[in-house]
Design a protein that fits this description.
about 250 residues; alpha/beta; nine-stranded mixed sheet; 13 strands; about 30% strand; binds manganese (II) ion
Length: about 250
């Protein structure tokens, strides 16, 4: 079993190392990740400058590859000749911080798994859904369990998994929930401020506001201290509305 391991927090992020060490029990792990933090990079790719790859040593002395590209670039690079072998699975994480609801569209962690699915490999993204995450052990162990499950179960085409592990002690985790994406949006998103030179600037942020029922969602599962697994499909078409829209007079 060969794993392509990536993340959006950079090759030296502690979450990547924790995941690498657990997945190593199941097979060979090939870490390839951005050379700097690229959280919220989304599914961006690099088209207008050279992509570089450098051999690096992780904190435990094991080898990895750092790239000046995005998380999605790293998956593409890893599946070309960089690793010297073809991986069997793409794993992205462990991301410190939740990737729930609408976060999926901004997340570099999730997009790397998406790239794996586009390239035809089983793939999942995994995050620890807390603000100040220091302990990755429980989530890393669960990632190895899930990776094992993915060797005996297959995913449909163009499908990957988005996993969020609640940031609580392992004994407080109340099982697994297979979930759907919640609907959330940011409230008070943009803050306008004045810099020391008197010029205006903006800062993106804001509070998250849930929309609609949370029943069966990733957000609800994490609130209930359950590990959320959402099967995500890459077809963004709104199939129900497609037929109705054909009746529009345009
Ligand atoms: Mn991140």
């Amino acid at each position: 079993m060969k794993f392509l391991l990536t993340n959006d927090d950079g090759i030296h992020a502690p979450g990547l190392l924790a995941l690498k060490q657990e997945l190593s029990r199941l097979g060979e792990v090939y870490p390839i990740a951005p050379d700097r933090p690229r959280s919220a990079a989304g599914h961006s790719i690099t088209l207008h400058k050279p992509l570089r790859v450098t051999r690096v040593s992780l904190a435990d002395g094991s080898p990895g590859w750092a790239s000046n590209g995005t998380p999605s670039d790293c998956v593409v690079l890893g599946l070309s000749d960089v690793l010297g072998c073809k991986p069997d699975m793409v794993v992205s994480g462990l991301n410190p911080g939740p990737n729930l609801g609408e976060d999926l569209t901004y997340s570099g962690t999730v997009s790397a798994a998406m790239e794996g699915a586009i390239l035809g490999l089983p793939a999942f993204a995994i995050s620890v859904a807390g603000e100040e995450v220091t302990d990755f052990a429980a989530a890393a162990r669960f990632a190895a369990r899930l990776a094992e499950a993915l060797t005996s179960h297959s995913l449909p085409p163009h499908t990957f998994l988005n996993v969020n592990v609640p940031a609580v002690a392992e004994k407080e985790i109340r099982g697994i929930a297979i979930t759907r994406q919640a609907r959330r949006r940011y409230k008070g998103r943009l803050e306008k401020r004045i810099d020391p030179r008197g010029r205006e600037y903006y800062w993106l942020g804001g509070e998250l506001l849930n929309e609609g029922s949370l029943a069966g969602t990733d957000v609800e599962a994490v609130q209930q201290h359950r590990i959320s697994i959402t099967p995500v499909h890459l077809d963004l078409t709104q199939h129900e509305f497609l037929e109705e829209m054909k009746t529009w007079k345009i």
